[in-house]
Amino acid sequence: MRKSFRSAITHLVLLLIVLATVYPVSQVVTISLRPGDRLYSTSLQPIPDGATFEAYRIILFEKEFLLWMRNSLLVAITVTLLGVSLASLAGYAFSRFRFPGRGVGMLSFLVTQMFPATMLLLPLFVLLRRLGLVDSLPGLVVAYVATALPFCVWTMKGYYDSIPVELEEAAMVDGTTRAEAFRRVTLPLSAPALMITALFSFITAWSEFIVARVIIQSRELNTLPLGLESLAGTFQTEWANYSAGAILVSVPVLILFLALNRYLVAGLTLGGVKG
Amino acid sequence: MNSAFLRRYSLPYLFLAPAAAVMLLIVLYPFLYNIVIAFSNMSLYHLRDWKFIGLEHFRTIFAEPALYRVFLKTVIWTGVNLVFHLLFGVGIALILNQQIRGRGVYRALLILPWAMPQYITALTWRGMFNFEYGAVNLILRSFHLPAIPWLSDANWSLAAPIIANIWLGFPFIMVVALGGLQSIPRELYEAADIDGAGWWVRLRRITLPLIKPVLVPAVALGTIWTFNNLNVLWLVTNGGEPADKTHILVTYVYKAAFHYYRYGYAAAFSIVIFLILLVFVAWFLRASRERKGVA
């Protein structure tokens, strides 16, 4: 009796927290369904009167949404591929070898996280400007890879640390090289960490706004964040269209997150990191 | 000797080279160039014909009240966010770590804020804080509470982005804490039960000490990310509104650099911010005596 009472309380508390968590997301859905003449509604209904998918049609076919999507996909996929390959290699070097410069190297990856965005953005911007190189997607890719790398390298290193070296050594007894043992034994075992690294790289690139705002200037190179911000720039004008766009942008990421949900707890080995 | 060195270390250096190249090009080079700009009079009007002016920008920065005012807001911003991230993150992780039905569903739903792109979260909350039509005030009114001028009153305009950022930040701590909780051996709690320890004692003596090694690096990282979070505050307050009164250090510098084109000043200010954070994190990691965990 007492036990079922306690579990009821637990569920009640959790439901309240979930409600507060999901509500802002549901707000976006609600607004995206509002018909054009009811944008300034003061109602709190989840599904508005006269709900319509008009905003989705407008954003997909009358705005440059598909162009923004193409740019963002190009950038995000390149960043993910680069981020995962670079981090899986660098993390392995930090985890398995003791070499001159190791400590400094690992520490400097951490220290870069403390740079305020402007400290890199401003010199980068001035440099690119003087070279006439502002306004290019490859520029954005390199900047994002550098942003995501430190976290990815640390995650990979932490995960490799938790895999026994003996597995590789056993493979090497059979005559395989170290690099081969890494590729055939350790890398496949690191799937959870690779997933986290990929997810993190993708999201960094898919969701970044500030760097893109400085580097990208021409309209045809706009990424999704830039495009959507231009819709939300003024509250009055395109709130429904913005919300429809926000839903279209968030859904793929949400699906990715939920699909990789079970890797999150296993792959984030922050505490398992050894010296 | 030289070739022995190469044979011994060639693999790790080879593995490290691509990542190091990117970091040197995109991080170290701008970092050094930023130092040069900080000691120059560079601005939009002196982009090419700039000259060194020594410590002048640093003198200006420390003489202005702006630094201290904005610094205070940054401390409040970071502190309040982190306290609530920890409170909610660890609290919810403790609840979810019990044997309850639908645990996976709860966890999936609670991760939503982390999965939403940050700028969408921020822009959405800006809409929700709208005085007339925003959901927050509509809810307050439906409980017969007075509406709050979230974005137009400087006394409230820091609370708005803080609420948005607490919402989007707690799942990270929750996930990290869950990972830590799952590695605590069950026997410890059974032993505590035999000794008749209540839940408070178990929390203080077993749970918290054992998840501390996971939480310390997460809190260090969380502090850095929050302290330097440009997106949320900038987008919720639309660039520091009302009248540039709602700034933390990074948004203040961003505005100086890209809206007022004070390049030299912004570069010098960036260095000051970096040093503040560096000193704090070094102190924090030393104080929590878990330096090995991250460095």
Average pLDDT across residues of chain B?
88
Instruction: Write the H/E string of chain B, N to C.
Output: HHHHHHHHHHHHH
Q: What structural category characterises the helix and strand content of chain A?
A: mainly alpha
Shape of chain A: globular
Unreliable stretches of chain B, pLDDT < 50, 5 or more residues? 290-295
- CATH names the topology of chain A as MetI-like fold
The portion of residues forming beta strands of chain B comes to: under 5%
List its traits.
heterodimer, A: about 280 residues, mainly alpha, MetI-like fold, 13 helices, disordered C terminus, B: about 300 residues, globular
Describe, in plain words, how this protein is organized in 3D.
The complex is a heterodimer of chains A (275) and B (295). Chain A has 275 residues and is an all-alpha fold. Chain A has one domain: Orthogonal Bundle (MetI-like fold), CATH 1.10.3720.10. Chain A is 74% helix and 0% strand. Chain A has helices at 2-32, 54-61, 65-96, 102-112, 117-131, 137-161, 165-173, 178-189, 191-207, 210-215, 224-232, 239-259, 261-267. Chain A is globular and about 70 Å long. Mean pLDDT of chain A is 85; it is low at 271-275. Chain B is mainly alpha-helical. Chain B has one domain (54-294): MetI-like (MetI-like fold, Orthogonal Bundle). Chain B has 13 helices and no strands.
Helix and strand topology:
The complex is a heterodimer of chains A (275) and B (295).
Chain A: H1 2-32, H2 54-61, H3 65-96, H4 102-112, H5 117-131, H6 137-161, H7 165-173, H8 178-189, H9 191-207, H10 210-215, H11 224-232, H12 239-259, H13 261-267
Chain B: H1 2-38, H2 56-63, H3 65-96, H4 103-115, H5 118-128, H6 135-142, H7 159-182, H8 186-194, H9 199-227, H10 231-236, H11 249-258, H12 263-287, H13 291-294
Helix pairs in contact in B: 1-12, 2-12, 3-7, 3-9, 4-7, 5-7, 7-9, 9-12, 11-12
